[in-house]
Amino acid sequence: MVHTARSARRHPGVASAPDPQQARVADLGLLTPNEHLVGSPADRAALTEILAARRASAGLDQAHPGVVFSLLPWVLADLGSDALEVFYTGAAILADRYETLGLHRLLPTDRVWVGVRSTRANVFGGFHYADQGYRHLQMGAVVTRYGRLDRTAEAPGLVALDLLRAYAHDCLHYGSYREYRVRDGEVYRVRYGLNIRSLDGCTYSAPDPAGTVSTRNLGVVMEGATDREASAIARQAAQRLGIAEPTGVDRFAFRDVTGRLAGDDLAHLPAQQAPAEQRTASRQDFLAALAAYGRGVNNPYRAFLADIGGSDADGLHDVIVSTMISGCLAPLSAWLDQRHGLGAFAALFRAASYCGPEPDTSM
């Protein structure tokens, strides 16, 4: 279910009749499928103007001055027919899966900038390259191809799988529910998927304490759910095409891309990342980031699903993703209430410090 406006009470989680002004803006392609501009007509007009300017001149490559970028369709064409088959096999799986979850429009591939070459030696790209991903204000994604960026791509199949995982991941970021308001003359996001933020900056859920095994942070839950979907799509594409697991260091990347990175793998990877000022975007930095993502996102999310979902962990995951897309918290709240008691959503996720409006989780 796609919501096109807010309820009259302005409570997050319930939508009302479509807003004609917003519908016109959406028809122009300025907004993603589930983005919503909230406030007075003047506020919505200001939001439209700011977002139009940001999205017309995204400039996503500017954060990476030593890297040459191209657009995803051109990169895939340059990689050759095998890479195209991998990506488009996965893209078909992706489209069917996301349709069932309620996402009916995907991130346009010409809004994906791919770093393909570096002017510096030994720079290693891929999903875990620093400071990349989906940029919601610019409505675009910046990624890098897997492998040494000072060389020609050496494993087109793995490069394509990595790009597929990144694209599937960013499609969910693109398609997740968002609400924007004006604050101090700027665009301010007050809703994103399951999460809520008040105008004074209070977020609904608190960061997990150090050493947390099973997350209760909504940001980690959403990122973990997003990557679970993306890696499952890459895994199905690899299985359908009979792509074998490579040897050497590429084995860790393949297992990570396909969602099969295990504890034994993490034990062979760096225990922690170097301080930011010491990183050089080397292969070692990439592997350290890969391991940190597994320990900090994927493992805590898996533990959360097992802890809260039990024998229906897959069902809980599906409800989480569909709720991220629709923005309607009622189905997830009902699922949790049925298994963990009335008010389970707040009991699980609400930070003691949260000072904003409570979400409406009623049906």
Tags for this model:
363 residues, disordered N terminus, globular, 46% helix, 12 helices, four-stranded mixed beta sheet, alpha+beta
Summarize the structure in words:
The protein is α+β, with helices and mostly antiparallel strands and 363 residues long. The protein has one domain (60-175, 203-349). It contains twelve helices and ten strands. It has a four-stranded mixed β-sheet with strand order 1-8-9-10. Helix 5 packs antiparallel against helix 6. The longest helix is centred in the last third of the chain and has 27 residues, at 283-309. Residues 1-17 have low confidence and may be disordered.
Layout of secondary structure:
Blueprint (H helix, E strand, L loop, with lengths): L19 H8 L7 E3 L3 H16 L10 E5 H8 L1 H21 L10 E7 L5 E2 L7 E3 L4 E5 L2 E2 L7 H20 L2 E6 L2 E7 L2 E2 L21 H24 L8 H8 L5 H5 L15 H27 L3 H14 L3 H11 L3 H6 L14
Parallel strand pairs: 1-8, 3-6
Antiparallel strand pairs: 2-3, 4-7, 5-6, 8-9, 9-10
Helix pairs in contact: 4-5, 4-6, 5-6, 5-7, 6-9, 6-10, 9-10, 10-11
What value does the average pLDDT take? 91
- The sequence of SSEs as H and E is HEHEHHEEEEEHEEEHHHHHHH
Distance between the termini: 13 Å
Total tally of structural domains: 1
Question: Number of helical runs?
Answer: 12
The spatial strand order of the largest sheet comes to 1-8-9-10
Question: Which sheet architecture does the biggest sheet show?
Answer: 4 strands, mixed
Secondary structure category: alpha+beta
Strand content: 5-15%
Classify the helix fraction into a percent range: 40-55%
Task: Report the strand count.
Answer: 10
Low-confidence stretches: 1-17
